[in-house]
Write a structure and sequence with these properties.
Helix 2 runs parallel beside helix 3 and helix 6 crosses helix 8. The longest helix has 15 residues. By secondary structure, the protein is of the alpha/beta class. The chain folds into two domains: 118 residues, Rossmann fold, CATH 3.40.50.2300; 101 residues, Winged helix-like DNA-binding domain superfamily/Winged helix DNA-binding domain (Arc Repressor Mutant, subunit A). The radius of gyration is 20 Å and the shape is elongated. Helix content is 38%, strand content 22%. A five-stranded parallel β-sheet has the order 2-1-3-4-5, with helices on both faces. Strands 6-7-8-9 form a four-stranded antiparallel β-sheet, with helices on one face. It has a three-stranded antiparallel β-sheet with strand order 10-12-11.
């Protein structure tokens, strides 16, 4: 998932970015509302973390401007102001959640996960598709047997996890390849479109033995599907029919 951090305090921004990056998010940081408006016109983000006390246009005006501009991504507002009126104003101007500084990283991560689930119409920290389960809080993946036996863990690297989580949040709809690429990296890291293919290939090798496939949608991206049982007359996922 790709996040936009809007914070003018360099030390605070560095700490937040380090924590979010360590949790597997691709994070881009800007120091002003004006710059945030520029980048959101050109780039796509899954969520924005916005400090209220910005120079020039403040975070509340930025949030309102984003909403007026048609941006529907969740917005988490950060501030040192803890008065009820400030919290109400932040939510009324388009914020989805509100955190008062100082805060602990685990709570920030939990709030971000909740906002991302809500934006993708997911209601639980555990994402499921067929036998596959992802626990987004513990960052653990496993395969559940049909009879409810012991779950078999699946090891996923950080970027494999990012791709898998994005695919599951989109399922059964296909995931756009360009958005997958954006979810994997921010401005300060370079990754080629072919890298997405590498991670898709690795995931296919881990999923297909368990009846799951990643189907390539030409010109668009990939879709997570259940493999058809042998002999049912349907083509396997990822293999075109006649």
């Amino acid at each position: 998932m790709r996040l936009l951090l809007v914070e003018d305090d360099v030390m605070v921004a560095s700490g937040i970015k380090l924590g979010l990056s360590g949790a597997g998010y691709a994070v881009d940081w800007v120091g002003s509302a004006e710059r945030a408006l520029e980048v959101t016109r050109a780039e796509t983000f899954d969520l924005a973390v916005i400090d209220i006390g910005l120079p020039g246009m403040d975070g509340l005006a930025l949030t309102q401007a984003l909403r007026k501009g048609g941006h529907a991504m969740p917005v988490l507002i950060l501030t040192a102001r803890d008065a009820l009126q400030d919290r109400v104003q932040g939510l009324d101007m388009g914020g989805d959640d509100y955190m008062v500084k100082p805060f602990e990283l685990p709570e920030l991560l939990a709030r971000l996960r909740a906002l991302l689930r809500r934006s993708q119409a997911a209601t639980s920290a555990t994402l499921s598709f067929g036998p596959l389960e992802l626990d987004t809080a513990l960052r653990q993946a496993c395969i559940r047997s049909a009879g409810g036996g012991i779950a078999q863990p699946i090891e996923l690297g950080p970027r494999e996890w990012t791709v898998m989580e994005y695919l599951m949040l989109q399922a059964p709809k296909p995931a756009n390849k360009d958005k997958l690429l954006q979810a994997l990296t921010g401005w300060d890291k370079e990754i080629t479109p072919n890298a997405v293919e590498v991670y898709i290939s690795r995931l296919r090798g881990k999923l297909e033995p368990h009846g799951l496939a990643l189907r390539s949608i030409r010109g668009f991206g990939y879709r997570l599907e259940l493999l058809s049982p042998p002999g049912d007359g349907a083509p396997e996922a990822g293999v075109p029919g006649p």
